[in-house]
Amino acid sequence: xxxxxxxxxxxxxxxxxxxxxxxxxxxxxxxxxxxxxxxxxxxxxxxxxxxxxxxxxxxxxxxxxxxxxxxxxxxxxxxxxxxxxxxxxxxxxxxxxxxxxxxxxxxxxxxxxxxxxxxxxxxxxxxxxxxx
Length: 132
Fold this sequence. Notes:
Elements: H1 8-13, H2 16-36, H3 43-51, H4 56-66, H5 69-81, H6 94-130
């Protein structure tokens, strides 16, 4: 993505902070579903919702050591959540998180594009009637 040609709203969708925020929501929702099914303790997703956080710089630091983006992310989240974080990612693969995140980002980007297209079409319609 070339930032000078990209709207800030579009660039924000693809920034690491946004990506990791989506990852955290995916992991939290999965934990909540597993708790509902009795697969993990009911208090685990509550602790995640209350305490989970991450720092992009810290994730990058961990990733340089472990050579795995999702492990680095989960390690950083665990530093904030504590013991209950051990239930995150249970039964999941990295692709579950990465593919779901990509789809969320694509939907958000498409929504932004569709809004822009609607604005262009509205402006074209107004100009067409103006010069009819």
